[in-house]
Design a protein that fits this description.
Bound molecules: flavin-adenine dinucleotide
Structural class: alpha+beta
Number of helices: 19
Shape: globular
Radius of gyration: 23 Å
Low-confidence stretches: none
Helix content: 40-55%
């Protein structure tokens, strides 16, 4: 038997919160310091080997669809590995599906963002129903009667895995069905029909090409009503206690996100109640979209953070050519470059979450413009980063027993769903056009940094805006990238240690740009940056 040598010890147990300086600082700065105790507890629980294992199990044994029982009766149920349910128990126990609505207070969205950021590092599939449930609340409030009935269940922290009518359960989760086979970006092409019944409810006929987490207790769904495309709440069970006519045709065989089920469904006269004004389905459901897009930023930042933690941990212990990898100058450069990308994503995301805690004019403009912009750029950076971090572990990074392949497979999904990259950039153009104070709010944020490089970069953006780039769709990605990189630079310059912000500005605002990691110029404190990013030893 060979002796195992030169292998790092397992990272876990570690405290996902206490070991993350960037996150702790952001929680304090963005108004959620009251949550530090709870977040420290959650961080300890998530970083336990047993919890980490739940994520591996839930992905190794993906959900199974049961369409019929042994006699041929319809079931349309999905079975999950117990690890999936245990992770949801932890998540609901921490209020990650609804705490800012159940207990509104300053910093509530930031505190929840910090919790989901930690959960997403350990397992991202369960994030899907949590994000949709969180996002559903403002939309459900458009229908006070439905809200009265459903919100208490949604606010409950007692996860209930049983498949039965929601009124018989301790809690409820809500999913979403918008995308149809013929078009997901252009929702006006939806063909599902909604026929009114005498009691004010509707019967839905049609399909959805993607409907994730189909074991949720209800779904916000778009369908064509007599007065146009409208939003509905469709429960899994009818008020009479029958299974609703939602047929699950199959589960998608996905690249990643494998612990979670994403289904194709048909509605055969499924019972649903209207939410919001008939004919205004898109604006009604888009309110949910803002929150789920924020969650895409959180989820992708979480993937980046976990990839960086694993990479730095490995490099601190693995020796090659008589030196620890973390001390090999070229590896130090790669690690530092990964670390500043991850920190920039986290700092921006937590700052954006704060805008959801505030209701002043600037916060509303930030939500409207920065949410789609940040979703575009953060989600675009995640696959590159997870791939490069995987390489830090060498061959072992390519092996399933490390979490790296799972992070890598998960990395593209947040960019595709809830509005793909181009759709986000076009949305930013619309937001710039329609938000009267957009330019001032952004100018103010860039100017706050009092940093010459950011000032020069911001002038470039001003020129783009003045040159009507905001009306030129072909330039939308370039404009949005510049907006976000300038914002990230400005936030890091104000709030992060100077070695981090100097490296970010030197590499992202001028220099080699972002074509590959490990291109940081000489003269930066790469070793110090890598050290800050690692888990506390
Ligand atoms: C794992 C997973 C889970 C999902 N879960 C759900 C769910 O629970 N509920 C749900 O409703 N949907 C869900 N979706 C669907 C997802 O939201 C859609 O796939 C997405 O919105 C894109 O729609 P589409 O697939 O029809 O692509 P299309 O609309 O055909 O778009 C294809 C490409 O064209 C681009 N494009 C479109 N219009 C333009 C334009 N005008 N200019 C430039 N480019 C353009 C898009 O950005 C995209 O890159 C899920 C998807 C995935 C992968």
């Amino acid at each position: 038997m060979f002796e195992v040598q030169n292998q790092p010890p397992p990272l876990e147990p570690y405290n996902v919160f206490a070991s993350d300086a960037t996150l702790r600082e952001a929680v304090r700065r963005e108004g959620a310091s009251w949550a530090e105790g709870e977040l420290t507890e959650l961080g300890a629980r998530l970083g336990k080997p047993e919890t980490v294992q739940l994520g591996f199990d839930a992905n190794k044994f993906p959900p199974q669809l049961r369409t019929l029982d042994r006699y041929g009766h319809r079931l349309d149920e999905v079975e999950f590995h117990p690890g999936w349910h245990q992770l949801l128990e932890i998540a609901l126990g921490a209020g990650l599906h609804s705490s800012p609505w159940a207990n509104p207070k300053p910093g509530a969205h930031v505190a929840r963002a910090a919790g989901t950021y930690m959960l997403g590092q350990i397992e991202s599939g369960v994030y899907c129903p949590l994000a949709m449930t969180y996002g559903s609340v403002p939309t459900l409030r458009h229908a006070p009667q439905i809200a009265n009935e459903w919100l208490p269940r949604i606010y409950s922290r007692e996860y209930d895995r049983r498949f039965r009518p929601a009124r018989l359960k301790t809690s409820a989760l809500v999913g979403m069905g918008m995308t149809e086979n013929q078009g997901g970006s252009d929702l006006r092409s939806n063909t599902t029909r909604a026929q009114p019944s005498a009691d004010g409810s509707f019967r839905l006929y049609g399909h959805k090409w993607f409907m994730s987490a189909p074991m949720c207790d209800a779904f916000l769904v778009l369908a064509q009503a007599p007065n146009g495309l409208s939003c509905f709440l469709m429960p899994r069970w009818t008020p009479d206690g029958e299974r609703n006519a939602i047929l699950i045709l199959r589960l998608k065989d996905k690249l990643g996100n494998r612990s979670n089920a994403s289904s194709e469904v048909e509605f055969h006269g499924a019972y649903a109640q209207p939410v919001g004004e008939e004919g205004r389905g898109i604006p009604t459901i888009i309110e949910m979209g803002n929150y789920t897009r924020l969650d895409c930023c959180i989820g992708s930042s979480a993937l980046m953070r976990q990839a960086v933690v694993q990479a730095v941990h490995h490099a601190r212990h693995r020796i090659a050519f008589q030196k620890k990898l973390v001390d090999q100058p070229l590896m130090t450069n790669v690690l530092a470059d990964l670390a500043i990308e991850s920190e920039a994503a986290a700092v921006l995301t937590m700052w954006l979450a704060r805008a959801y805690d505030e209701n002043n004019e600037a916060a509303l403009a930030i939500r409207r413009i920065v949410t789609p912009a940040a979703k575009f750029w953060i989600c675009k950076r995640t696959p590159f980063l997870t791939y490069e971090a995987m390489e830090v572990l060498g061959g072992s990074g390519y092996i399933e027993e490390s979490i790296m392949p799972r992070l890598y497979r998960e990395a593209p999904v947040n960019s595709i769903w809830e509005g793909s990259g181009n759709i986000m950039c076009l949305d930013v153009l619309r937001a710039l056009e329609r938000t009267p104070n957009a330019a001032e709010v952004l100018r103010h944020e860039f100017g706050e940094a009092k940093n010459a490089r950011i000032k020069t970069f911001a002038e470039r953006i001003e020129k783009r805006l003045a040159a009507h780039d905001h009306a030129d769709e072909s330039q939308a990605r370039a404009l949005v990238r510049d907006l976000i990189v300038a914002l990230q630079g400005s936030l890091l310059a104000r709030h992060s240690p100077s070695n981090v912000s100097d490296a970010f500005c030197a590499s992202r605002l001028d220099g080699e740009g972002t074509s590959a990691f490990g291109l940081l110029p000489r003269g930066l404190d790469a070793r110090g940056i890598a050290e800050r990013a690692g888990p506390a030893n």
